[in-house]
Amino acid sequence: MRVPSFPQVRLPLAALLAAACLAAPVQDPARAADGPAGHDRALRQQLRDLTTAPDGPPGAIAVLKRGTHTEVYRAGVAETGTDRPIKVTDHMRIASTAKAYSGAVALRLVDGGDLRLNDTVGKVLPRLPHAWHRVTLRQLLNHTSGLPDFSAAPEFLALVTENPRRHFDSRRLLDFVADEPLAFRPGTRYAYSNSDNIAVALMAEAVTGVRYEDLLDELVYRPLELRGTSLPQGYRMPEPYMHGYDVTAQNPPADVSEVLGTSGVWASGGIISTPKDMTAFIRGYAGGKLISDRTRRQQLNWVDGASEPAGPGKNKAGLALFRYTTRCGVVYGHTGNFPGYTQLIAATPDGERSLTVSLTTQVNKSSKPELLERLRTVEENFVCALLRKP
Q1: pTM here?
Q2: How far is CA 376 from each of CA 25, 282, 310, 344, rounded to the nearest angstrom?
Q3: What angle separates helix 194-208 from helix 98-111, to the nearest 10 degrees?
Q4: Among 9-23, 27-41, 75-89, 215-229, which stretch is predicted with the lowest mean pLDDT?
Q5: C-beta atoms surrounding 287 within 10 Å
Q6: Arithmetic mean of pLDDT over the chain
Q7: How far apart, in whole angstroms, are the C-alpha atoms of residue 282 and residue 30?
Q8: What does each C-alpha distance from 260 to 101, 112, 212, 369, 370 come to in angstroms?
C-alpha cells in the first residue's frame, strides 16, 4: 500500500537520530549461504549501492531460494546507530504484498464454494453503496473494479495527518468514499485501489461469519507454516524487527517504524511478517499450492496493469498476483510500499525458486522515481540470478 508521507511527523524524530551507519553485507552463519564469488559479489554490491544512495534505505535484504538451497544477501543495518545486520527472522511491514494474502483467502473460499469470482458486492455486501453493487470479486482482485480509493479521501488523510496512530474501525474504511461513484464501468480499466482489498476481506467475512484475521490464520498462515506473520491493529512492531526510515538526502534518516497504526490499512497493507515467512508464502502462493488448478487458471488471466510500485520487467495483473516478465524469464509475485518499507516477493510458476527483496525506506514513483528505477534494475538482476541454472 502507498500511504502519503506526513512531513510534520518527521521533525521530532529527525532530531533524535544520527546519520545511518551503513555496514558491509554480513553473513548469517546459520542455514543460509552467501552466493559464490563473481556474479553474486556483483549482486551484493548492487544491494550495497542502494543503501549508500543519498535517499536510499539504511538496510536491505534479498533472499533467493532454489529448492532447499537458500542464499541471503544483505547490506546496511537493521537499525541506524548499531551494527546489527538484518536477519531473515526480523519483522517488517509487508505493505501491499498483503493484498496477495487477501487474495489467497478469497481464492481458497472460491475453491471451497463459499464464494464465486462472479459474486457481486451487491449480493455479498448489500450495505455498501448501490452504485458499487455490480462490482464482482474478480474485478476487486485484479483492480478493474473502479472503486474509489479510501486512502486518498480528504477526510481520511486529514485524520491520519492529525494523529498517525489513530485507531480506525477497519471494517468501516470504505465509509470514507461511500458517497463517491465508481471511477469507471467495472471491468473496463485497470486502476490500483486500496479499497479493493478491503472489500475482498469484507466479502470473505460476510460469507463465512469468521473474522478476516482468523481466516488468514486458518487458510494461509497454518497451511504454509507462517509463524512470524500477523495482522495487528496498533502501531507496535514485534521484536526483533528491521527499523523503517523516512530518508531524504538533506536529513538524517527518521525512524518511522511505529509512527503509523495499521488499523487504517488492514487487508490492503497491514500485515507484519519476516523475510523467512514471506519466502514460504510466495513459494506456496505463486506456485499454486493453496488452490485448485481450476481456480488457478482463473487467477492467471492477465490484464494490463502494474503493481505499486512497479515490479521488475514488464508487469501484468492477475487475481491478487502479478506477472513480471524479465529479460531472463517470468516470475509471479507482488510488490508493496509503506512509510519505512518497500517489498518485492516473487517466485517461479512452480514455486520452486523464489525471491524476496526488502528495503527499509519507502520507494515509489511519486516519492523517489529515480531510486525506483534503480531498484527495479537490481530486482531484475536478482531474478536473473534466481532463474539461472545452478
Answers
A1: 0.90
A2: 20, 19, 8, 10
A3: 40
A4: 9-23
A5: 18
A6: 91
A7: 22
A8: 21, 36, 21, 23, 26
